[in-house]
Input
Amino acid sequence: MTRSEFDDIRAHLAAEETRAGDLLQLARTLLDDLEQVSMREATLRAYYLRLLTAARASVAAELAGDDEPLTFVRDELAKRGQLPADGESVARILADAHTAAALVTALEKAPMRTLRPQSRGPRCAGVSRTTPR
Output
């Protein structure tokens, strides 16, 4: 869900004309969204774990003197269709990796935003999700 969708929900909950049935429907929708996000997160965690395991196995294979230490990483990338294509530019792939590393570093340095109770009135900034009236 986007920030504006959360703002829409907050505004709907704060509205005086909101009925109990509307809130129940909203709760069901939010639970469905939460379940989808949870499944997506579990899938991404599994992909990450497989890639991390392949990377560690490749480093261990190199330390053991294996002739093809990148076999594990190549196999994992091939399973996901992520092996570089024959004509793909090495410079572009390395630039993408550098940019991704810089982005992760910046995200790790930025303090995580937390939600805190606010005494402001309701806000409504988006139109991507409609709430029943």
The first helix runs from residue 3 to 14. Confidence is low (pLDDT under 50) at residues 121-127. Residues 3-83 form one domain. The two ends are 20 Å apart (CA to CA).
